[in-house]
Amino acid sequence: MENKKTSRREFLAATILASAGMAGCDGENSPFTPETEVALTGEKVKLLSVKGEVIEVDRAFLKPVPDLPRLTNSEERKGIPGKKFVMVIDLARCKNLKKCQQACNHMHYLHPGQSWIKVHSMQDGEHTAPYWQPTTCMHCDEPPCVKVCPVDATFKRQDGIVAIDSNRCIGCRFCMAACPYSTRVFNWETPALPEEVAKQHYSIETSVPQKRGTVGKCDFCPDMVRKGELPHCVSACPNGVFMFGDMNEDTVTNGADTFRFSELIKDKAGYRLMEDLGTKPSVYYLPPVNRNFPFESGLENQNLNDHDHH
Amino acid sequence: MTTINIADTTPVPAEQIAKDLLPQKFGRRGMIWTSVLILLFLTGIIAYFRQLRQGLVVTSMRDYVSWGIYISNFVFFVAISLVGSLITAVFRLANVKWATPLTRIAEIIAVSAIVFAALIIIVDMGRPERMLNLFIYGRIQSPIMWDVIVISTYFVISLLLLYLPLLPDLRILINSKAPQWLKRLYRFQGSFWKGTAEQFKISERSITILCIAIIPVAFSIHTVTSWLFATTYRPGWDSTNFGAYFISGAFLVGSGAVVVAMYVFRKYYHLEKYITEMHFEKMGRVVVLLCLLYLYFNINEYMVPAFKMKKPEEAHLGGLFTGEFAPMFWFAIVVGMIIPIIILLFKKGRKPLPMFITGIMIVVGAWFKRYLIVTPTLLHPFLPMSDVPAAYRHYFPSWEEWAITIGSLAGALLVMTFFVRIYPIIPIQETISESHEEE
Fold it and tell me: Distances from the Cα of B372 to the Cαs of A144, B124, B240, B393, in angstroms?
């Protein structure tokens, strides 16, 4: 693991250098002589050259590499080695702010009106208290959707993520019928995307860009995890409802607090949705006890579309 | 020359049989019928082009109701195609001789229905151009793959069961007074058939093997189709009864369709000597038995969950019994099963005209029954329908969906219409040879 990290850092440095070089590479000119005037910042950055020498260049010559190098389809299908992702959703903290949903929709460029995260208004029994329940994809260990997919377009990765290959999906929607959590959405029309996003190569890890005639859903943001960051919903929630982590490390975090997963689940009596179906979800819920907010405070954020229902 | 005696007392010589049964040109009514079908079919094609260009957004399907009338129409087509195996294979193996004039009617219904079942599934796909992925990346664990395998097998066997018994008739057709272009077609399809004893032996044997083979395949196609639903967790689909329930319903709707076709062909082509009242009488008994069988499975399917009224089932069953789907549900049960049973239990009810009306009631009831199997379940998911536009919570098919569905039904009828224009709908050779046997 350590070796890999180092090599990635080196690789990154080389990429930055290369792109800086490309920007200036024009005939016999030195790669660092710009073809257009670049306003020097005066700030020097030390870099490792291809020959192995440490060189100093002005920051103005650096071009940021937007992301990590692209993974191959088979790497993306395999997943991140040694990981087993898990999410804990603390229902006591949710007041239906929907920041998770907004961040998710925004970062995945979802078509207007569609969301991968839904916040349900729940009431278990006639006399029991209502509460808000955000749902993501459950990333089941026995995923009913994967069982029924005829072309291996949705699959279970070794890190526990159930992902979708939109370049392979035939759009039969059997997975949508099979999912008891109704977590999957379909691109009924060409998704409204910014042009540069639509042109991007589809990545299983970012699930961007969504494609017409294929199924989409929450992907647990493995691209963020690879960058050492938390999924968008987790970091967007101001109330720390979502905790994300690795089962193998037995740790989950909402960014502010970090918990030992097994203890959290034990102490707070965590549970999973529809346990009786045997789907073995990777998303755990903490019951809505000792709530931070009254249920009513979330009503104003209820989706406008919800009001005309029943 | 020999004379024969089919059911009633009129003796018919072999030449007369051939003359009676040869395909005839469309009359005025035939022309109108065919043009209407072509128009409906073309409207379907136009609607499908719109769908190809804009995506499935032209349908009313959305994230909750993600399967709509395309899928229910698919189930309907698969169901109706099962009758081929019943009348050709089951009756043949059971040595039911009276059904011979009906075999080709049943087989052409089977073939055209299964072709349109396959087409309608392609219409339902979000990415039809990726269909080859099924063969490149196919995974055998998916019930869809099972369906692909058994439906294509069923199609091939049904086509052979249509073709092999046609060979002796092709020879008659080649020697008939048909127009040149048709004769070219007949020669292409059947000029190798000389009618030698050996050829008959091979053909006989092949048909017997195919008849045995098609029965498990036929059971498979509809059982697997029922599993597309029963392998999920949803209320209304999560049922161990589904395979038998689907198959009994399929035999019923197929037999209903055969009765309707019998009546139409008999009247239009004046086949009263060949499709007699006896045939209606016997088919009536078959249909009433199938009606009772299907009603039995329906009682199982709805009564047992209704007795318990488990929470997830409650909303679904409520919608069917007394809710928004109640008119359609009771129509399908009463008009599609109970009234036909009452009519057909009486001898007078098994005469051609009442049988024809009953057949139509069964087929129409069955189409709506398939709709009720697919859609209401999807409107009652386990978790509430939250954070979606209002249109996602209801389903009524768009005009494109109706046009494509009606177009596919018209297409299946067109295949049958053209078939009877080109080939004899009642096997000539078999009718002649069976009359020989009777002597």
Answer: 24, 18, 18, 16
**Ranges of CATH 3.30.70.20 domains, chain A:** 80-303
Q: In this complex, do B126 and A212 lie within 8 Å of one another by their Cβ atoms?
A: yes
Residues in Cβ contact with A78 at an 8 Å cutoff, skipping those fewer than 6 apart = A157, A158
At B264-307, the pLDDT tens digits run: 999 999 999 999 999 999 999 999 999 999 999 999 999 999 99
CA dist., res. A140 & res. A137, Å (int): 8
Which residues on B lie below 8 Å from A169 (Cβ)? Answer: 126-127, 130
Residues B373, B229: contact at Cβ < 8 Å? yes
Residue A70's pLDDT is what?
80
* Tokens standing for residue A293: 């907010």
pTM across the whole model: 0.88
Could A277 and B134 be called an inter-chain contact, meaning their C-beta atoms sit closer than 8 Å?
A: no
User: Across chain A, what does the average pLDDT equal?
Assistant: 87
What pLDDT is recorded for position B438?
Answer: 61
Q: Is B139 exposed, middle or buried (0-12, 13-18, 19+ CB in 10 A)?
A: middle
Inform me whether the C-beta atom of residue B233 falls under 8 Å from chain A C-beta atoms: yes
Give me the phi and psi of A258, to 5 degrees please.
-120, 140
Instruction: Using CB atoms, pick whichever of A149, A168, A212 lies closest to residue B55.
Output: A212
CATH number, domain with residue B326 = 1.20.1630.10
Which residue segment(s) compose the domain that B278 sits in?
A: 3-384+392-438
pLDDT digits over B335-377, tens only? Answer: 999 999 999 999 999 999 999 999 999 999 999 999 999 999 9
Asked if A178 and A259 count as a contact pair (C-beta separation under 8 A), the reply is no
Domains in chain B, number:
1
CATH architecture designation of domain A80-303:
2-Layer Sandwich (3.30)
- Residue B405: which H helix or E strand, with range? helix B399-422
Among candidates A150, A176, A185 on the partner chain, residue whose Cβ is nearest the Cβ of B139: A150
Please answer yes or no on whether B142 and A174 come within 8 Å at the CB atom: yes
Q: What's the complex ipTM?
A: 0.91
Instruction: Tell me which chain A residues have a C-beta less than 8 angstroms from the C-beta of B67.
Output: 173, 177
